[in-house]
Specification:
The protein is 55% helix and 7% strand. It is built from 14 helices and five strands. It has a three-stranded parallel sheet, sandwiched between helices. Strands 4-5 form a two-stranded parallel sheet. The longest helix is centred in the C-terminal third of the chain and has 30 residues. Bound molecules: tryptophanyl-5'AMP. Tryptophanyl-5'AMP binds next to β1, α1 and α7.
Amino acid sequence: MSKKIFSGVQPTGNLHLGNYLGAIKNFVTLNNDNENKCIFCVVDLHAITVKQNPKELRNNIRETVATFIASGIDPKKSIIFNQSSVAAHAEAAWILSCVARMGWLNRMTQFKEKAGKDKEKASVGLYSYPVLMAADILLYDATHVPVGDDQKQHLELCRDIAQKFNNDFEVNNFLQVPEPLIQKEFSRIMSLKDGSKKMSKSELSDLSRINLTDNKDQIINKIKKAKTDPLLLPKSLKEIDERVEAKNLIGIYASLTNSTLDKSIENFAGKNFSEFKEKLSQVLVDKIEPISAEIKKLLADQEYLDQILLEGVEKANSIASKKIEGIKEIVGF
Ligand code: TYM
């Protein structure tokens, strides 16, 4: 069945292995299926919900485009564009923020995590961020949204907003209620320094993540220093659940080799971590080094990247501007 795919990535620098295994790898598979229509958005409006350096932001927008292409997304097949260049996103976000309920947003765990203890000082944008995300998806009638596990709650909110809009204005199915596409295994890659925390761009220690721009030596060094436990590698799925660092590293290995957690556990059962880490470094270097080299090559050609964005913006705009007109009409403008 043909799917309409939409997903977004924030251009906040340090795109990492979690972004790749949790989302971008899946984008590539969906892009390669000719039946699908895919749209991948660099969500720069989302990025400014926390303070950004304007010069770095501009570079990071290009770097995100370069990462998409270097990972295998074909800009001839998929639309790649940046959110702020299509005005309908901000317009739809406002209208949908009048549909979404405070109670729904108050439940969002990511806001609580990101705002931390001092909620009063968080931007209003950080709070209403999931409404903008809903606008992104609903403007394109997306049927499926590939994301990592951390975005699940935001997608549920998007579905609630779509349903409430359709009910309130009695426009059956005008807004397409999207399905999340979240991988069963490996949908949450954890920090290399603490297996109970998500691998994240904002974590201070660079040793906690493999960046998609890391070179061979950096990757080997980070895996060498990755936290483990004093035991030998586990022999069963049951045994691994309590050993979060071992589970994460074996999960990364399994995902990179397109295998399952089960099979990878079997492969390394009873071995010591140093032997396993050597194998893991090898598969990581094989996968990430070519992507990293390609990102650097693409970044040297800014004109090419800007041209991709320009073409993507034009295509995205022609879809989104029609949808926002429909939304405005329904609302009574
Ligand atoms: P962002 O930029 O934080 O992350 C981009 C994608 O990477 C996934 N991801 C992970 N997956 C597994 N393990 C991890 N440690 C990990 N860290 C990040 C995220 O789940 C995401 O799929 N709000 C979104 C961007 C967005 C969006 C959208 C997504 C804006 N509009 C519309 C889908 C549809 C975000 O901040 O992702």
